[in-house]
Design brief:
About 40% of the residues lie in helices and about 15% in strands. The protein has a 10-stranded mixed sheet, with helices on both faces. The chain has a 3-stranded antiparallel sheet with strand order 1-9-10. The chain has about 400 residues and is α/β, with parallel strands linked by helices. Strand 7, helix 9 and strand 8 form a beta-alpha-beta unit. It contains 13 helices and 13 strands.
Length: about 400
């Protein structure tokens, strides 16, 4: 969910920051915060075998005072542009009480509503959805994402409860609750090696259940999940994408696969650009300081790829730049961790530009995947790049070429 949401915002260049920030980053227009990713709790009631989160059995909860500090720091630093999406993620957000969000949403609106348009989004496994949650979603126009990996035989291989029970039926009960109350939602499906041989069953599941908007998060090596099941299966992955594209065209886009839709858009119009070091670069908020801010339940925060927060490394510690109780986000640009982190990410951008033919359509990749796969933020290509950017782009280009040849 987080990566898919990030791509939604790649096409919007943010308004400028105060001059002191622009000068410090040497980026113009300097990135305002487009996506604020809040972890209300690290706990999750499921135990998916491909999850990257290191503390999903931790039942700690974000305090409302921390929510207030998160928003106040954004306001004080002048980081809010015209629009801000707050994503409640990284754990199961519905493990928190409904009342927490009623108060948290009001707190954020009171502080930031006069300077930016705030939208809330939640990515949920849907197993806890009931009438009270649906009321909250409708009352606050929350954008809901449901994690479901397709039909039960695919989903239940990986997404089980802590006692080892299957979860698909409970997810679909939650989906039914949303449907009965007319609440729109999108789906995020993790695609593993086993999914690749079942492209039609995968696609048909979403057609049959009237789910029109599907994001494919291809199995990634991140955090505690050390190896992607797609490693060594990349030709099968290409065939899977080709089949999804064919089915989508045949069904006149009744099911929109976001990775393919994004590729279509990029073929029509490349990414917008920003100025950095006297040149123009493709816009990618994952490599722009403070464009994305991730905040853990205890107020620790980081930037760049959300998946980095809380992970351990010898060079960058736990990637934490500060805590909202102690300092602001702009001040954290001078923290010792950031002084090492930003040059490494910047070197990775320049390395990608030198070596990757897809750079204009990506803008420097995802630092988290460079770190987890290559153990080097200054590195370039990853399996994630090939799965999420290159092959969807190639699938769309291949179809366009075939259509031109037969026209």
């Amino acid at each position: 969910m987080v990566e898919t949401t990030i791509r939604w915002f790649r096409r919007r260049l943010a308004p400028p920051l105060p001059a002191k920030v622009t000068k410090r980053l040497d980026i113009s227009p300097a990135p305002s915060t487009r996506l604020l990713i809040l972890q209300p709790t690290p706990f999750c009631n499921l135990d998916c075998d491909y999850c990257y989160l290191p503390e999903r059995d931790n039942r700690s909860r974000m305090a409302l005072h921390t929510v207030q500090q998160v928003a106040q720091r954004l306001l004080d630093d002048g980081l809010a542009g015209e629009q801000l999406t707050v994503v409640w993620h990284a754990g199961e957000p519905l493990a928190m009480p409904v009342e927490f969000y009623d108060q948290a949403f009001q707190t954020i609106e009171q502080l930031l509503g006069r300077v930016t348009r705030v939208t809330h989004a939640m990515q949920t496994n849907a197993t806890l959805i009931d009438a009270r949650w649906c009321h909250l979603f409708k009352q606050h126009a929350v954008r809901v994402g449901v994690s479901v990996d397709g039909p039960a035989e695919l989903h239940d291989r990986h997404r089980r409860t802590r006692s080892g029970k299957v979860s698909h039926a409970r997810v679909m009960q939650g989906v039914q609750q949303l449907r009965e109350r007319g609440i729109d939602f999108h789906a995020i499906a993790v695609v593993t090696r086993h999914s690749l041989a079942h492209a039609d069953a995968f696609f048909d599941f979403f057609v049959d259940h009237g789910i029109h908007d599907v994001g494919c998060n291809f199995d990634e090596a991140e955090g505690g999940h050390l190896r992607s099941s797609l490693a060594g299966a990349e030709p099968a992955h290409a065939a899977f994408l080709d089949r999804l594209l064919q089915r989508s065209v045949e069904h006149r886009s009744r099911v929109v696969v976001r990775e393919l839709a994004s590729a279509w858009q990029l073929v029509a119009a490349p990414l917008p650009t920003y100025a950095w070091r006297g040149r123009q670069w493709p816009d990618n908020p994952q490599v722009m300081p403070l464009a994305l801010i991730s905040v853990a339940w205890n107020g620790d925060f980081s930037t760049f790829s959300p998946e980095l927060l809380g992970q351990r490394s010898a060079e960058f510690g736990d990637f934490v730049l500060g805590n909202v109780a102690d300092s602001g986000y702009v001040a954290a640009l001078q923290s010792p961790v950031m002084q090492r982190l930003w040059p490494a990410v910047a070197a990775g951008i320049e390395a990608c530009e030198c070596r990757c033919a897809y750079f204009a359509y990506c803008g420097g990749g995802a630092p988290a995947n460079k770190w987890f796969e290559n153990a080097d933020l200054a590195s370039t290509e990853t399996l994630y790049c090939r799965s999420m950017v290159q092959r969807p782009f190639d699938a769309v280009l291949g179809r366009l070429e075939r259509e031109r040849e037969t026209a």
